[in-house]
Amino acid sequence: MDRHVPMHALPEEIQKMSPEEKVCKYCGVSYLILHEFKAMEEKVKAMEKEMKFYQGSIEREKRLQEKLQSLSQDFEQYKIDNESKTESRIPRLRLRLKIQHGPGKLVPNSQFTKPCIDL
């Protein structure tokens, strides 16, 4: 923590005060450093609050990483399933084309410049 260093010395009249005059009668803390204690208390409270936030963020990060990994695995499985479905359709489409148009021919669609089907 930053330590406050005063720029000017205490006035002579405060320096000459007796210790009883400079100390809180309830808690025993010098009035001259009481404000520093209060400032430090506020800093500690702010730091505790920040620590709680970061502590929670670590747990959130872990849960999000697990969810991301699960979704990534699901995506890969869907890709594999889709590829296998596509691969199983290609032979059937080729067979259908052979039956309809003869082997090795692709008949262009009159509406388009591309062939009817891309293999």
TrEMBL record:
Residues 37-81 form a coiled coil. The lineage of its organism: Eukaryota, Metazoa, Chordata, Craniata, Vertebrata. This is Leucine, glutamate and lysine rich 1. Keywords: Coiled coil.
